Amino acid sequence: MIKEIIKYPTPLSVEYAVDVRVFNNELFALIDNLKDTINENNLDALSAYQIGSFYNVIVVKDDNDEFVEMVNPRLINHKGRIITTESTAYYPGKTAQIQRFETISVVYQDRNGNDKSLQARGDFSVRIQRKIDYTFGATFVQKMSKEEKEKFEKSLENGINTTNADYCPTVFFRDKILKLINVVMFFMLLPLVASFFIDNEQTLQTLWSYQLYTIYGVIGLNIIYFFYAQYEGKRYVACSSCQLGNIVGTTAISLVKLFVITVASYFLLHVR
């Protein structure tokens, strides 16, 4: 029977796969469903995880395009490293550069519970590694370098249907606004430090004027952050309700910092 493959942004059904203990018709049906789904979608491998089953089962085509049924697979040895360009049915149309083991040794059981082992290299090895990742509740995202992961997540943000997706990104554009605010406030501390070494009243007043313009600018940036952050949060159904408190709190903390800097500037630069 052909099954629907779980695709992003739908979360995967369980955190990790459970080993099969009973080898019965239910297991046979699951394996056959995986094969039918692979053939229907022109794939080279699937894990039970990807069709909503919690069993530790994967089906992979070998280099001869023959199915290899693996129940409770375990990677026990590996050697060599290769960089591959991978895609997965969970992220349709997306690819990424992933570092994998070149050669692996795997132990598993067949559908009748018989112990098996094999060595795989090259593409066959990569297919097995990809599917074993799913048995631990992971996709190839967890195997990416930091730079590759950031690039991949950005492509998801740009390509996803944000109005309907059960998705909340970890990186927002508003974070850049907040970073700019913090950088500006850091530089506002410099005139305060300099005031301890300056006795000239005219110079202090010039610094105070500089601080005033900067204070107005930071207030404006906070206003922009507050309203843009709400707009950005509402684009994502999964996180719009949980973001408001964080936005308000972040803005309040930023304004408190600004207030402290303003008071210090007033006494150190203006009325000193």
Protein topology:
Blueprint: H1 25-40, E1 45-47, E2 57-61, E3 67-88, E4 91-109, E5 115-121, H2 122-135, H3 146-159, H4 174-195, H5 201-234, H6 240-270
Antiparallel strand pairs: 1-2, 2-3, 3-4, 4-5
Description:
This protein is of the alpha+beta class and 272 residues long. The chain folds into two domains: 25-159, Peptide Deformylase, CATH 3.90.45.10; 174-270. 48% of the residues lie in helices and 21% in strands. The protein has helices at residues 25-40, 122-135, 146-159, 174-195, 201-234, 240-270; strands at 45-47, 57-61, 67-88, 91-109, 115-121. It has a five-stranded antiparallel sheet. The protein starts with 24 loop residues before the first helix and ends with a helix.
TL;DR?
The protein is α+β, with helices and mostly antiparallel strands and 272 residues long.
Inertia-based shape: elongated
- Extended strand count: 5
| Quaternary structure state of the chains depicted | single chain
CATH architecture of the largest domain: Alpha-Beta Complex
Number of helices: 6
Rg to the nearest angstrom?
Answer: 28 Å
Q: Strands across the major sheet, in which order?
A: 1-2-3-4-5
Helicity, in percent?
40-55%
Helix and strand run: HEEEEEHHHHH
Instruction: From the 3D structure, determine the CATH topology of the largest domain.
Output: Peptide Deformylase
Mean pLDDT: 86
Low-confidence stretches: 160-167
> What's the CATH first level of the largest domain?
Alpha Beta
CATH superfamily heading of the largest domain = Peptide deformylase
Question: In total, how many domains does the architecture comprise?
Answer: 2
Reported for the largest beta sheet, the result is: 5 strands, antiparallel
